[in-house]
Write a structure and sequence with these properties.
By secondary structure, the chain is of the alpha+beta class. It contains eight helices and 19 strands.
Length: 321
Amino acid sequence: MILTILLTACTFRASKTATSTDFLLDTFVTVTLYGSDDQKVLDGAMELCRYYDGILDRHDPDSLISQLNSGQGPVEVDPKIYDMLNTALQLGALSHGRYDITIAPVMDLWDFRSGDKKVPDQEQLAQALKLVNQENVLLLENNMVEVKNGAQLDLGSIAKGFIADRIAEYLREQKVPGAIINLGGNVATVGTKPGNKPFVIGVQKPFGSPQEIVGSLEVSDLSLVSAGVYERSFVGEDGVLYHHIIDATNGMPARTGLLSVSILSASSTLADGLSTLCFLLGPEEGMELVENMEDTEAIFLTADGKTLLTSGLVDRYQPAD
């Protein structure tokens, strides 16, 4: 899902800016600095994205994730990656089995990456589902991680949020006054715009163009991350829309009456995973979950055209005209 960043040129006319864009993480990644035009800092941010893209890509045989998926025993990981995996497993424990980062064998059958518009064979899905169980991911002492019993990690539901957090952390260390990190719609903000003004982030209209929004929020030092049905999807021969948010209990796209879920949080890692989890849970259960979490809010867009907001957004969310 694309989150549109609403930024007017006149706002920054007198301020230094710098922007870099690259195709990483299977999407276009853009980092923009405000109040700074330090190209070295900007290059460092993009290099950090490339680094994590390399180690978290399970399709790269030399990546850390491929090493874990080899099942050859415990592997020592960076403490921050260890924490990310812990967050993902905690979210999975709340999902009644629907959210599971060992979903890789099922995702391979759907293969949205290649554009193959075929619904997997149900017998093959049943066999793949036997390998999906997050209990086969062991977080051991001293940042050691083991993936066993043929389980295969797919971190597509949380990796971009994790990387956005690492870039934001780096930019804060570099004393950047303000920045927008856009990892293909996973948006994180650092600081404020010049004049100490918040950024304005818009949520894309489902199935609309990237410029069409349903509403917007003012944010500073927060992330807004969405999970939606239309970023990777296809219409099958049966006329049904099949999308990439797969329910790990049956290997099929979730049918919860939602088009998208957007999560607002200081942690982009949490927002990324939680947006997928809430989509899988559906609006009622997802709303209840977020309402019981501190400093976390959600926007649910339903298939029947409704916009549902958690209580903390009622006075902050601005519907589009």
